[in-house]
Amino acid sequence: MLLFHFEGLGEAFLRRHDYEALRRWTGHPRVEPVIEELERDGQLTAHLQWYRANVAPDAFVRDPPRLPDVAVPVLGVWSSRDFALTEAQMINSARYCAKGFTYLRLDGIGHWVPLEAPKALAESIVEFANK
């Protein structure tokens, strides 16, 4: 993520060797159509701007801000093959949920849960919302 803060460099890194890093890292189930989209009309830069706007570079060397606890019940969904988020991160999210935290682990699913397991995810959300 820190690399993405360097405009031009982040884009060059991802495009290097025909998006080799994107293909290798993400396990995205639709990587080829995504790469085609990223190459249209400045989309790659637009996507990287999300990281640039939401995570300041100094976030990697300072303490996180103290925010109020979440004041509604929370469903935390984690997938066992997620390359970017750890199970401990998800489980530890419970400490920030004042009205309860329900944890759901999806085994064998990667980072892209809505694409890889849309039915299981939707059913879990509906079940949680109907409690």
Estimated structural class: alpha+beta
Strand content: 5-15%
Major sheet: arrangement of strands: 1-2
Query: What is the percent of helical residues?
Result: 40-55%
- State the separation between the terminal residues, measured CA to CA: 37 Å
Quaternary structure state of the chains depicted: single chain
Strands, total number: 2
Question: For the residues shown, what is the average pLDDT?
Answer: 93
* Radius of gyration based on Cα positions: 17 Å
Largest sheet: 2 strands, parallel
Count of the separate structural domains: 2
Instruction: Please tally the helical runs, counting DSSP H or I stretches of 4 or more residues.
Output: 6
Overall form = globular
In N-to-C order, the SSE pattern is HHHEHEHH
Low-confidence stretches: none
Tell me what you see in this structure.
With 131 residues, the protein is an alpha+beta fold. It has two domains: 58 residues, no CATH class; 56 residues, no CATH class. It is 46% helix and 14% strand. It has a two-stranded parallel sheet with strand order 1-2. It is globular and about 45 Å long. The model has no long low-confidence stretch (mean pLDDT 93).
How are the elements arranged and paired?
Elements: H1 9-26, H2 31-38, H3 43-54, E1 74-81, H4 87-92, E2 101-110, H5 113-116, H6 118-129
